Amino acid sequence: MAEPQPANVTEGADPPDVIPANAEDRKAAAAMSSLDTRGDADASAPKKEVDLKALNEAMKSLGVDQESKKKPAAAAAAKKEEPKKLMKVDAADVALLADQLDISKPKATDLLRAHDANAVKAMTAWVTAAV
């Protein structure tokens, strides 16, 4: 059989929330709880501004900065925008590197392009990297 419950307990009710100790934690908790509830139509505009301000302060206290997230993406986009310079390499140089270094022709072509189509620079770089 079930035990009788006190009169002040209602079935399905959530237990009371624990109030944070300091003001900063209370602000963060208020911001997080406001995210859980959907905004009412009667007071949504001013409440959103206050909630966003509290949320931004909470995020700053956690060490999350929105501007720092954008900077690496902007740097990566700038790198992608730089076009690769097309360089014509001599077929004899490609054959020489492929034969002497025992690498494939596409790899020899990339090696030459990385070293301004200079076979001596490319071969020297390959040998020093292998050692």
From TrEMBL:
Protein's GO biological process: negative regulation of apoptotic process; protein stabilization
- Basic and acidic residues composition bias: residue spans: 37-48
Q: Which residues form the Nascent polypeptide-associated complex subunit alpha-like UBA domain?
A: 88-127
Family matches, as InterPro entries = Huntingtin-int_K, HYPK_UBA, NAC-like_UBA
Give me the ranges of the annotated region Disordered. 1-48, 63-85
- An example of a Pfam family matching this protein is UBA_HYPK
- This protein is called what? Nascent polypeptide-associated complex subunit alpha-like UBA domain-containing protein
